[in-house]
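Subject: for your reference before the review

Hello V.,

The reviewers asked for a structural picture of the protein, and I figured it would be easier to keep everything in one thread rather than splitting it across files. Below is the amino acid sequence we used in the manuscript, unchanged from the supplementary table.
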Amino acid sequence: MVNLSREINTYLTGEKGEMIIYLTGLRGFIMTVKIEDTCTACGLCCDTCPEVFEMGDDMAMVKVDVVPSEHEDAVQQAADECPVEAIIVE
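And here is what came back from the structure prediction:
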């Protein structure tokens, strides 16, 4: 379980009353990242942000579930510079 020391606002929306949690913080959202299987293992993401990416046997891998806020810019840079657009930031 992640301990968030940020203000949490909860809203009920949708036909079935699904709960959506909006987190307000430095950017307002929690960043996650994944690598698609189109990765060519070039290592650019690992060089750009080794705190979040590491090289696996056949492709790069993500080391964290949630990107720490201090690494968000580097993760976005890695995604923007990925030659095969295999990095998906959410």
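For the response letter, the relevant points are probably these. The chain is about 15% helix and 25% strand. Residues 1-15, 19-27 have pLDDT under 50 and may be disordered.

Happy to draft the paragraph if you're swamped.

O.
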